[in-house]
Amino acid sequence: MSEPAVAYDEAVERYDPVIGIEVHVELGTRTKMFDGAEQYFGADPNTQITPVSLGLPGALPAVNGTAVEYAIRIGLALNCAIAESCRFARKNYFYPDVPKNFQTSQYDEPIAHDGWVDVELEDGTVFRVDIERAHMEEDAGKNTHVGGATGRIHGAVYSLVDYNRAGVPLVEIVTRPITGAGERAPEVARAYVQTLRDMFRALGVSEARMERGNVRADVNVSLRPTPQSPLGTRTETKNVNSFRSVERAVRFEISRQAAVLDEGRAVVQETRHWHEDTLSTTSGRVKSDAEDYRYFPEPDLVPIVPDPAWVEQIRATLPELPAARRRRLATEWGYSDPEMRDVVNAGAVELIESTVAAGAAPAAARKWWMGELARTAKEQGVELSELPVTPQQIGALQALVDGGTLTDKLARQVLEGVLAGEGTPEEVVAARGLAVVSDEGALLAAIDEALAAQPDVVAKIQGGNLGPVGAIIGAVMKATRGQADAARVRELVLERVRS
Amino acid sequence: MSAPDDLTRLTAADLAARLAAGEVSSTEATRAHLDRIGAVDGPVHAFLHVSADEALATARAVDQARAQGEPLHPLAGVPIAVKDVVVTRGLPTTAGSRILEGWVPPYDATLVRKIKAARLPILGKTNMDEFAMGSSTEHSGYGNTHNPWDLDRIPGGSGGGSAAAVAAYEAPLAIGTDTGGSIRQPAAVTGTVGVKPTYGSVSRYGLIALASSLDQAGPVTRTVLDAALLHGLIAGHDPHDSTSLTDPVPDFAAAARLGATGDLTGVRVGVVTELRGEGYQPGVLARFEESLDLLRQAGAQIVEVSCPHFEYALAAYYLILPAEASSNLAKFDGMRYGVRVEPDEGPATAERVMAATRGRGFGDEVKRRIILGTYALSAGYYDAYYGSAQKVRTLIQRDFAAAFTQTDVLVSPTAPTTAFKLGEKLDDPLAMYLNDVATIPVNLAGVPGMSLPSGLSDDGLPAGFQVIAPAREDARLYRVGAALERLLETRWGGPLLKDAPELEVAK
């Protein structure tokens, strides 16, 4: 870390942070934004190209209707107004991964604008983030710099360009300045990006895999002395590509800027780069060097005028969004807010939903996934969903308990067998011979044997001292290898002694 | 007078008829044109590339198909030349620029696909001002094209190659593109016919873009009927061009044949006051007036209309065109195709290679317009320049709309003067730009325009007569143009080109 920073707690005590976030999401359309080249992950370099995505002389763009539909879906999910008419514009700048040396984007006429989204923090606090706009654009190609030590352009001997990504449809979502988050600003930033990621998946517009760069965030941070002060000078940290990094980058910038301001210096308006290795940002391009992109309306494309009926149809077919779904399920399942929050944080919503669908009561499903299974996952250091057991199997297991075939204790043993790969719950019960002993003859025999072994106990019980009953039950359970119903054993013991 | 046995002197329509009747083969016709190119193109230099083998292969295939009775397009087997701004798979395409020297496109423009599907042998690629910037073809990176009427004079531009090829009987048909007059002005100064269709009538997919909102490809021919036939072939909706019209293609040839009856009873012809005043050569104006008289005799009603905003057209055009061109030409950077120039000294970074490539690869006129356009789009200047120019464009569109409430077509001289001498205006860009004063408003409004010969000016050189129709009413051009052509040729005793001097034939 090249620059001094003040402790985060002190920074947010002295300054009020304001953040703004730009999220780019790659749309999961079959073909690119403006041409018929297919786009899927993992193809060989420069195999998903056409004259259009290579920017060959004479090639012209044609808008991908599915991409427009996806953009509208995102806009509606973000409670935005959908433009009656909007245009593409050219953003002119020279760079080898931009085949035309301009990016076709939207400038002053985005397809969606003026919306909001509610973001839920880990403790359940809901924070509303205002959305300024969501617009469509095309992605650039990907550069690989060869020959340098760092893999960065500096020091490289040559660079390779893969144009497979050039022209992949993007939607960029821009927030209004997010104020009022105070010391929780980094957490809000993270939760916001996470909320969008979940939303993209629920909408079916993108696989939204952070590690593949499907979702990329730029975070703006500025500080001001008090919430009443005018906005301070901001920095924009580019390409922060994991939830954790979003939180850390905001946190780092707050500390760094506080140190700058504490020294009486001014924050420089600039873009900054986030470094995962040092968990810090470094200076990029300062605003005075900023390029003049010479935007003008793209003359090769006609305005996009979404039919209002079509927009309404898209609105009507929007899937339930994750936050609403969580609220609905909590009510249906009778979970308290903290219970539901734990379920969400554990990534167990879908698992429990499927378990309930398989017949288990919501409370029982929660007990399994948040209890035994959560412990196992934690021990093994894996996600719940990665455990080798299906919600259907948990449902079947619970059905065995509900039907009296298994006691809770036996059921845990069966689960152990399932996790060990011994088969379905039914198969494990059969293989291990774990079903509850319901044959009373066998139970009575075991009881008589236990009573005979401890003759003094009978007298004590007959004298009104029920304490030793437990010892008899224990002995019976032991004899039946735990496959007896303890309550029934107790009843039978008392009958036997008193008769 | 055209020798009946010289296949190069036939109109495309007549050649097509003879092909269909089996009187001649496409191979004979194609070979005749290739021979003519071999004989006269040295001094004319209309072609940048001659694709003899490919043309003859197509011709043989057509002949074979015809022999087997396959259904063929009416123009099948009629040779054609294509302006070098149109990409042709497998044939070098340079747009007249050194920066694309040696580039062979991997795909065909939509209009080329149509030409190939209809089986017209492509003779080669014609010379032009670099990236279609110019009115004389002197800005080509590959040498001047010479006007067949006088080899010391310009053939017009930017499509001087296509016009000269047709005028010199090197091809019966050619493709041009017109951004501010690049089809019509060369037609005017070479005594040929050229049509700039309604914007969107012909797909722009595969046209190396100059100014996207103005560019339009069209036919370059010796007769109005031939232009109609070729326009019909290349027109039609193309999903690859978002600005292409979805309308069905009208029967332009039928309109031309109707016009050729010479009857224009009831047709209202508007003379644009602003397009015949100062700066027009007297001989050009005289031929224009005579043409008006003929239209009147044919039954047309001649009215005078004013288009007051046309005086700002040139200024608006020279903001919109360079702005769009500066962006369209950004892709020529030596990174993916064409010429790549490394800097003479210092590191070969991407930015420095781009700069060196563009510095060496582009000619002066291209650089001039890129600089103008970059400036016009810059932050703080956009509204004053590009924004204002777009407002002027709207006003010009309104002028046309108002004029067309009183008229069916508008007319003017195509260019203010006949062909000037090579080199005469090369150092005076403004004088060069003024040549397009009458053609530019048509592009700004997206309406169709035609130039056809109106006779010889006092200097013995051809003058052009421009007909303009409302958008989507290109058929009116063919009707009125064919009528005027018929009346003029009756007066002249044949086509104007019969008066062109015979070119010296190389052995």
Note down, in words, how this protein is organized.
The complex is a heterodimer of chains A (499) and B (507). With 499 residues, chain A is an alpha+beta fold. Chain A has 16 helices and 14 strands. Chain A has helices at 8-14, 65-77, 185-203, 243-262, 308-316, 322-333, 337-345, 349-357, 362-380, 391-402, 408-419, 425-432, 440-453, 455-462, 469-479, 486-498; strands spanning 16-26, 81-82, 89-92, 102-105, 112-120, 126-138, 142-146, 158-162, 169-175, 215-224, 235-240, 270-275, 280-286, 296-297. A nine-stranded mixed β-sheet of chain A has the order 2-5-6-9-1-10-11-12-13. Chain A has a three-stranded antiparallel β-sheet with strand order 4-3-14, with no helix packed on it. A two-stranded antiparallel sheet of chain A has the order 7-8. In chain A, helix 13 (440-453) crosses helix 15 (469-479) and helix 15 (469-479) packs across helix 16. The termini of chain A are far apart. Chain B is of the alpha/beta class and 507 residues long. Helices cover 39% and strands 11% of the residues of chain B. Chain B is built from 16 helices and eleven strands. Chain B has an eleven-stranded mixed β-sheet with strand order 1-3-2-4-6-5-10-11-9-7-8. The mean pLDDT of chain B is 96. Chains A and B meet through loops of A and helix 10 and helix 11 of B.
